[in-house]
Amino acid sequence: MPAEPSGDAAGDPALPAAPDYDGAHLRHVMTSAAASLGLAGFDDRIGLPQAAVSVVLLVDGLGDEQLARHTGHARFLASRWRRGSAARTLDSTAPATTAAGIASLATGRTPGEHGLVGYDVYSPELDRVVNMLGGWDPEVDPRTWQPHPSVLRRAEEAGASVLTVSRPRFADSRLTEAVLEGGRFRGANRLEARFTAALEEIREHLHPAGGVRRGPPQPMLMYLYVDELDKAGHQHGVDSAEWIAALESLDAEAERLVAALDREVGDQVSVLLTADHGMIDVAAEDRLDLAEHPELLDGVVSTAGEPRLLQLRVATGDDSEAVRAERRTEVADRWRRELGDRAWVLEREEAIDAGWFGDVSAAVRERLGDVVVALRDSTALFDTGRIGTGPLDMVGQHGSLTREERAVPLVLLSAGSLG
Asked: Which residues form the signal peptide (predicted)?
């Protein structure tokens, strides 16, 4: 059975441990995959077997806890997950959300370095909240917002053939431009079509049609993205029939891919499954509309982040530091009184000092909320005055630092073991 991530922070049992950014963490997966190909400039922090082709299968929303609960519906994945030599549990990011998690996977950086510190984030340059997924502000340049080169680009420059297999609409998305740029892109909407495309690309790479290969094949790094579970979880919940059906489809396609590779190319290909975050179900009565709690928004200039990890801006650039500090403390204290043990409420510097966002650059520091509210029970908070009432219908939620949201699996699906 994979080991659990560390528990409460030493010296302060009231706070969760910070994500283990320097240890068993999601941000080391893609860089380790590149290193396993023999590419210069990368470190294998995970201990992957050497391969000619390395496939990183990112399953959006498949937390370690959710996989553990539903192994009966994922017999192939579970058979590998239970094999201690082939599986581990990793930490995701704070917040435990897609933009931050994928950015850390794709750049090898902490959220405090790459700057995608939430589903939506305050932009000091524009003085407004901007989205980090499908709704990027046209005035936000992805390459400026996130200046670090992607692992895919670095691998390509190191001599690898690089390919992303994902939904067609992500080919030229702003998130792709920000963190997943590099190599070729092959799109397919259906889950089975994406796995078929991955298999076809590997076959052609290792055994080109009509070609005669001289010497070893060029190293190949592939990023394969699956978002069906995340969509089903948000809409129906992670214990719903729809989510389980998506898991069963994933399991069948993963088994088909690995079986074909085992037959055709043996141990030349490494297939590594991981995820960006887990998820919890939030009952309708626990989805709280902040419009019905105006006392919480008193003194709050704007909100950002996730319903499970809210970032509050409580001061403006025109305020003196003394005024800003006073307002931060007043708002943080009020939220602590109102939420009690339902949430961890930290001022920005406290959250940074606690290591929640890893190393934080000066530019990213100003994007973070003055007050950070991380839910620790099954509550979610929605600022409907800013985001509308539609998100109140979402069952599955994530973003906070509970184990259900932050612990993600790392499973070597192909032959071999993790070092």
From this structure: none
Fold of 284-397: Gyrase A; domain 2 (3.30.1360)
Q: pTM for the whole thing?
A: 0.95
Over its length of 419 residues, how does the chain's per-residue pLDDT go in tens digits?
333 333 343 334 489 999 999 999 999 999 999 999 999 999 999 999 999 999 999 999 999 999 999 999 999 999 999 998 999 999 999 999 999 999 999 999 999 999 999 999 999 999 999 999 999 999 999 999 999 999 999 999 999 999 999 999 999 999 999 999 999 999 999 999 999 999 999 999 999 876 666 678 899 999 999 999 999 999 999 999 999 999 999 999 999 999 999 999 989 999 999 999 999 999 999 999 999 999 999 999 999 999 999 999 997 767 788 888 899 999 999 999 999 999 999 999 999 999 999 999 999 999 999 999 999 999 999 999 999 999 999 999 999 999 999 999 999 999 889 98
Every domain of the chain and the residues it spans: 26-116+141-280+402-412, 284-397
Beta-bridge partner residues of 89: 409
Instruction: Output DSSP code: residue 19.
Output: P
d(CA 300, CA 42): 43
Structure tokens at 414: 């192909």
